[in-house]
Every structure is written in structure tokens, then in C-alpha cells.
Amino acid sequence: METEMPESTVTIKGQTTLPRDVRAALQLHPGDRVRYMILDGGEVRIARSRSVMQLPGLLQGATTTCASLTDIEDAIAKGATGL
């Protein structure tokens, strides 16, 4: 749900300051890095970069089941045939 569209000015060097609300939404702190995703239609999304060191445990609790090799092969075959 969009409530506001913060703005900032680009300097002659191509620099800008991220508005406070944007920094808060991305939980950014001094020294953090951001990543820009350029989409079709001239839209750009900004996201907080994460180092590889932050990845362990990222998916912890996402699922409690494991797929067998047969389950995986069946899913691939089903996807390939469109069934």
C-alpha cells in the first residue's frame, strides 16, 4: 500500500541522499550497501544488499519437509508437460 512517494535531488555528480523514510523501510545504516534493479518501462527498484555472511539461516523455518529425488523428478516432468 503506497502512502507517500519520497523524493530527493540528484547532484551534478549523480549523487543523492536517500530520504529518511526510505532508509527506515530498508533498515539501512551508515556503511550499508544498496542494490538497484532496473526494470522494463524505466522503473528502478532499490534494495538493501546482503553479504554472503548474512545468508546462513535465511531460510530457517521456511519448510519442515524435504522432497525426495522422485518428488523432484515428478515435479520437473509435470512442469515440462504442463499437466
Average pLDDT across residues? 85
Number of strands: 2
Main sheet record: 2 strands, antiparallel
- State the strand order across the main sheet: 1-2
Features:
83 residues, two-stranded antiparallel sheet, 2 helices
Short description:
This protein has 83 residues and is of the alpha+beta class. 23% of the residues lie in helices and 12% in strands.
Task: Tell me the layout of helices and strands.
Elements: H1 20-25, E1 34-38, E2 44-48, H2 69-81
Antiparallel strand pairs: 1-2
Describe the fold and architecture.
With 83 residues, the protein is of the alpha+beta class. The chain contains two helices and two strands. Strands 1-2 form a two-stranded antiparallel sheet. The protein is elongated, with a radius of gyration of 20 Å.
